[in-house]
Design goal:
6-stranded mixed sheet; alpha/beta; 17 strands; about 35% helix
Length: about 475
């Protein structure tokens, strides 16, 4: 969808925001007069009050250039935030995408509000139709142009630059998660990361031979049952001079059968999304490059496939991680933490980062704890945790902090190795985070985001989240880096 900002514009559909309890806005009065009062009549007939989310759609007479007018409720002006305008833009696209009209213009007051509305429109316009071959015209969206009318169009364009970059990162994360596992597997995912060099990133790919030399037995153990070679993709954005980098680490299990501890068949197709953390990191790196972030950031994604063939790891196997610590595998379906253990260690030892943030669709327990509204946040550093929490409002991606503590470590004790990879049913998300913490030195600021509940969602979703995967992560990470590490 083409997004533009203008001080005035003609369009097939004209949309105006109506305040809760208010009359027609000034932008609508000329159209109301030209249509002989149709807008005023429509508000009275439809009991439209301007409550957030309400829409009144009016078909205009042929004498008026606009073919349709949409009055959309904006709620009370004092309650509006950037997320409010994002929602308005998204809901307009959702309701009008299949209307048969090609262009829509929305009147918005301030430039920053205009930028947020445009971001919502772009997110709502996302589609993944790659593998449909028989879509009819009436199954495809007609809306191709979204114009935001604002007096300060140039300022709105400037405000949209970082939001546009971040929505591009979100859409890339969605694309990666939507791809089928026969198309997106460790090597092909790594190739897509490598392609981001065209955006200004430096990308290095490590294959199994190199990872064996590095002693990454934990990560390699997960992928040894697959015919697909495991990969480690390292994406570097150098925008911060000589400063130490921030490292973003993503779990990239491109398909997770559970391994020998096989998952139930029902719903297993969703396990193509078990690389949601890697998708988020890849999308975040695109966003940082697009908006020319003034920070040094390194994205590392461990890419594997967890398959149950004759060479797969078994419950009872002991793996030696790159840190030298040994891990007794008690459940091969607790594999994401085995991948992250080696990637976290590599990031820490090779890049001496200012901070590390990892993202992973790690535990079903986080869905039980927080549902599909918040990612679970765990951290050894209050300042870093606060920075992530502080980016929630600007990004619209929500987190909730959960505890860590030595008392949970006892659940990871093994009779045969330094630790086991599961801690039992109790506090499953916390023990997973405790496991990861063992691969990060105490003096390194680290945060873990368990995104299993928010990476994909079913049922009632906002208009800005129209696809199976949400693309959670790139906007949160980009905003956090902007607010904490870019001066």
């Amino acid at each position: 969808m083409k997004i533009s900002f203008k001080s005035s514009a003609n369009a097939d559909i004209q949309a105006m925001i109506v305040d809760d309890g208010a009359s027609l806005p000034d932008a609508a009065k000329a159209l109301d007069e030209a249509s002989g009062g149709l807008l005023t009549e429509a508000l009275a007939a439809e009991r439209f009050t301007g409550k957030l989310g309400q829409q009144a759609i009016v078909v205009m007479p042929k004498s008026v250039e606009a073919r349709r007018v949409v009055l959309i409720g904006g709620g009370k002006p004092a309650d509006r935030k950037p997320a409010t305008y994002e929602r308005i833009g998204a809901e307009l696209v959702k309701s009008q995408a299949m209307s048969g009209f090609k262009s829509l213009a929305l009147s918005v007051d301030a430039p920053e509000h205009a930028a947020s509305a445009a971001a919502g429109a772009k997110l709502a316009a996302y589609r993944f139709d790659t593998y449909f071959t028989k879509l009819k015209d009436d199954q495809k969206p007609n809306l191709t142009d979204f114009t935001v009318i604002t007096e300060e169009a140039s300022a709105a364009e400037d405000a949209f630059v970082p939001l546009d970059a971040e929505t591009a990162g979100t859409c890339l994360a969605r694309d990666l998660m939507n791809e089928p596992p026969n198309v997106l597997y460790p090597e092909s995912f790594a190739a897509r990361a490598k392609a981001l060099e065209a955006e200004g990133l430096e990308v290095e790919i490590l294959g199994e031979e190199k990872m064996k030399a590095l002693g990454m037995g934990s990560l390699l153990g997960v992928g040894q049952g697959s015919i697909r070679e495991s990969q480690l993709a390292i994406m570097k954005w150098n925008g911060g001079g000589s400063e130490d980098p921030v490292c973003l680490v993503g779990k990239g299990v491109c398909f997770d059968t559970g391994g020998i501890s096989l998952k139930p068949g029902a719903g297993m197709e969703d396990m193509k999304g078990d690389m949601g953390g890697a998708a988020a990191v890849t999308g975040a790196m695109l966003a940082l490059a697009r908006r020319k972030a003034k920070a040094n950031v390194i994205g590392l994604i461990g890419l594997v496939e967890n398959m149950p063939d004759g060479n797969a790891i078994r419950p009872g196997d002991i793996l030696t991680s790159a840190s030298g610590q040994t891990i007794e595998v008690q459940n091969t379906d607790a594999e994401g933490r085995l991948v992250l253990a080696d990637v976290l260690w590599y990031a820490q030892e090779h890049f001496k980062p200012r901070a590390i943030v990892d993202l992973a669709t790690l535990t079903g327990a986080i869905v039980i704890s927080l549902g599909h509204e918040h990612a679970g946040l765990f951290s050894n550093n209050d300042e870093l945790a606060g920075a992530i929490e502080g980016a929630v409002e600007a990004s619209g991606e929500k987190v909730w902090r959960l505890p860590l503590g030595e008392a949970y470590d006892g659940l990871l004790k093994s009779k045969f190795a330094d630790m086991r990879n599961i801690g039992g049913r109790a506090a499953g998300s916390i023990t997973a985070a405790q496991f990861l913490q063992r691969f990060v030195n105490k003096d390194v600021a680290w945060a873990h985001l368990d995104i299993a509940g928010v990476a994909w969602r079913e049922g009632n979703k906002p208009a800005s989240d129209p696809s199976w995967p949400s693309g959670f992560g790139p906007r949160l990470l980009s905003r956090m880096i902007a607010e904490k590490y870019e001066g």
